Amino acid sequence: MEQGVSGRVLMENAGRxxxxxxVERAAEVEGGARVVVVAGKGNNGGDGxxxxxxxxxxxxxxxxYLLVAGQELTGDAAENYAAARAxxxxxxxxxxxxxxxxxxxxxxxxxxxxxGTGIRGEVHGPAREAIEAINSAGAEVIAVDLPSGVNSxxxxxxxxxxxxxxxxxxxxxxxxxxxxxxxxxxxxxxxVDIGIPSxxxxxxxIRTHLITPELAELCLPARWADMHKGDAGRVLxxxxxxxxxxxxxxxxMGALRAGAGLVYLAIPESLNPILEVKCTEAITLPLPETxxxxxxxQAAAAILEHAAACEAVALGPGLSRHPQTAQLVRDLVASIxxxxxxxxxxxxxxxxxxxxPLTQRRAPTVITPHPGELARLMGRDVPTLQSDRxxxxxxxxxxxxxxxxxxxxxxIVAEPxxxxxxxxxxxxxxxxxxxxxxxxxxIAGLLAGGANPEQAAIAGVYYHGxxxxxxxxxxxxxxxxxxxxxxxxxxxxAAE
Length: 496
Hints:
This protein has helices at about 5-25, 45-55, 75-85, 95-105, 125-135, 175-180, 200-205, 215-220, 245-255, 270-280, 300-310, 325-335, 345-350, 355-360, 370-380, 380-385, 390-400, 435-450, 455-470, 480-495, and strands at about 35-40, 60-65, 90-95, 110-115, 140-145, 165-170, 190, 210, 235-240, 260-270, 285, 310-315, 340, 365, 405, 410-415, 420. It is of the alpha/beta class. The protein has a ten-stranded mixed sheet, sandwiched between helices. The protein has a seven-stranded parallel sheet with strand order 3-2-1-4-5-6-7, sandwiched between helices. Helix 2 (about 45-55) runs parallel beside helix 3 and helix 18 (about 435-450) runs parallel beside helix 20 (about 480-495).
């Protein structure tokens, strides 16, 4: 009993929600649906037993496949096992692998009530066999709390995991519901109120948060009617090399679309004629270059002078990894005292040589790596980072003492103290060249406007993803390109 609400009441409410979801799906099956509930020994299994009892009482064709002997159940799960038996619910205890495969193959709806939030390590034994049987069937799958085999704390897959069509999670979303790769297996995610007291939630030490529309709007810098361009902030974008004028353009335009009053674009001098045409609203700063038309160390003095006059600097898009440019990056990261957004080749140049300038920065810093860039920075491999994206983002934020924007499906914003935010906007159309450059400029523009690094990152990733969603409306997302996000940022940032 916690906060005056018993575990049995919570389990009854959870099971009822599952039963309602099954009825919804079963109604679509002509001639009546065959429902299979696959239940484990914990509270997750107890939720499944409640659902089975309620479904059976409504006349549905339902059978429970309990992966353990009934006598192994304890607490609320044991009580609901006894109740299901008393109602006459068919229960097959300790089924064989063949029984599970046949039952799942013949089912129209399967309830996955095998494993809950406490799973650690690899799934093995009957639970693994059951997950494999569910995944090999062609039925609709409803997962209880989260798909079995997904680590609730990280979103990692514990060797094998259920691929659900619908996941009902209770009280609050779990990390495994929203962080990839686990999020991919949830299907449609529904958050169900089962009566968990709000006081209990308020007292919990929750350090992972979803970025909501309300939070993103709160993170936007203030604007006022009589402000001028100087009030709106100045951004210096240091970007571009031969063949990569697009990256520089997209970053500069991202800063402008974020509301920056003035955007300066520091570029290799030979690229100035191109970028003066491509960037009508930005002020170009042609600077000394290498023999391959990337910025050279001789550009440092001018860049530092302009950086000191700006409220934010974006460094990296399309810079190249030329050794002299890498030296320039190290010098700038070590010397710029203005809030800095570091991305793309800015990160790669440090990873190729020395990350010390980043770790020793004292001014506010946001880095925006994709998995490959973060792997190079941290000296780790991409699969390892991707298996625990949340942990990787937190580790990087602590190691580099900065805000980390770990890009990808479900982009994560992490702070050095362990607080983290997960973004749910965006779509697969963002897997396109230049999309990250827009985000770099967007975050820099928000910083220049007065947001702190955390706020700029949170609002930046949310509206960046929402712009992609708006760009995809009425068409296949694969047709979305980076400039479409720029065109839709105004609508994305309008009050929803």
